[in-house]
Amino acid sequence: MTAGTLIVIAKEPLPGRVKTRLLTEFTADEAAAIARASLVDTLAAVRQTPVLRRVLALDGIAGPWLPPGFSVVGQRGDGLDERLAAAFEDAYDGLPMMLVGMDTPQVTPELLGVDWSGHDAVLGLTEDGGYWGLGLRVPDRHVLLGVPMSTDHTGADQLSRLEALGYRVKLLPTLRDMDTPQDAAVLAARFPALRMSRLHRRLQHSAHPSVLFERALDGVQVVATGTDGRTVAALSEVDRWRAPADAVDRLALSRCEGPVLDIGCGPGRIVTALAERGIPALGVDISAHAVRLTTRRGAPALRRPVQEPLPGEGRWGSVLLMDGNIGIGEAVGELLQRCAELVRPDGLVLVEVDLDDSLDDTRPIVLRSAAGRRSKPLPWARVGARAVLRHAHTAGLLPTEDWRTPTRAFLTFRRATTQQQVS
């Protein structure tokens, strides 16, 4: 005996509603795209399986991803156990049924069309303790209601329930389902021809740099390399950026004159420290997540590129480029010129530079996560004091101080007057 009806239970693959555990490595849109690809792979396997009926039990609205030949029923019930039971009831027309989820894109027609003659049920377990498939001859709510779902023992509990009710159960091969970035990477490597796998490879090698930067802000290990793979730096200082301002930060801030503009504010430790000193300050960053982290600290921040119009143009008492932000966009001279436009005539520009005075590296960098995700090349510069001084002169900024600690180095500038620029 084989199933006469195959049921796929799924959620509409919308950002923020599916595959939320992938968000440690992927954006909500990317996670939804992976979920959609996984669902399409599953539906394709079901279409290739010789059965009489194919049913999609859907939470949401069917889209162009649904191939022909499927009847669609809406999910009903509160918990997953109730929705599974309802899916069997709504799909039943006298034929044995097998239900699968959308998280095992590697499922095959051979697995779905398995002969379970002499058995009352069929169960396919997953490596994480759940199960990927359940077959029943007839609907039976007692099989499902009250079984704990989404735990590391759901599969074992489901098997125990079936056996307690007297069901003769045929076990299918254990599969790995796709919940985490590691799951997705393993499945993509093992089953490279899947639609999900092809999408995963594209996403792995073409992440927007801001995605990986924001993951670093959340504690994920991220390394910066050159496009040739040479290691430039680990973003190990993210822990410092996320913490309150340290002694060196406070030493730098003691030089500031309000109001202060912090370019590339990150998670906001500098703006927060300035506010605590009673100095008006604003952070700007292109990362929405960095701005959220800053505002959660109670400090003001704005999501905007520094090249776009900013509040207080030409009236800032101090403009800061700390934590390597002198490298933004790789065009050091243009960035310093922009700082000169933002600061008031007698204002201060404070720049953190590399400890290597001779460093002048404007090659793009690539961000890489520990899970293997790689960003598109990011224009960036890593520069020491000599290069910054050269560009500052062109931008009309006069050096006033060069100071450093064993681990960090800084330059401060004043905007030159017209007479000073001429001389």
How are the elements arranged and paired?
Elements: E1 5-11, H1 28-47, E2 53-59, E3 71-74, H2 80-91, E4 97-100, H3 109-112, E5 121-126, E6 131-136, H4 141-144, H5 154-164, E7 169-175, H6 181-190, H7 195-204, H8 209-217, E8 222-226, E9 231-234, H9 238-242, H10 247-253, E10 260-263, H11 269-276, E11 281-285, H12 288-296, E12 301-303, E13 316-321, H13 332-342, E14 343-353, E15 360-361, E16 365-369, E17 382-383, H14 385-394, E18 397-404, E19 409-415, H15 418-422
Keywords:
15 helices; 24% strand; 423 residues; alpha/beta; 32% helix; 2 domains; 7-stranded mixed sheet; Rossmann fold; Spore Coat Polysaccharide Biosynthesis Protein SpsA, Chain A
Summarize the structure.
The chain has 423 residues and is α/β, with parallel strands linked by helices. It is built from 15 helices and 19 strands.
* Overall average pLDDT: 93
CA-CA gap between termini:
95 Å
Percentage of residues in DSSP E strands: 15-25%
- Give a short account of the largest sheet: 7 strands, mixed
User: Helical residue percent?
Assistant: 25-40%
Low-confidence stretches: none
Keywords: Transferase
Protein name: Glycosyltransferase A (GT-A) superfamily protein (DUF2064 family)
Organism: Kribbella caucasensis
InterPro entries: Nucleotide-diphossugar_trans, SAM-dependent_MTases_sf, Trfase_1_rSAM/seldom-assoc
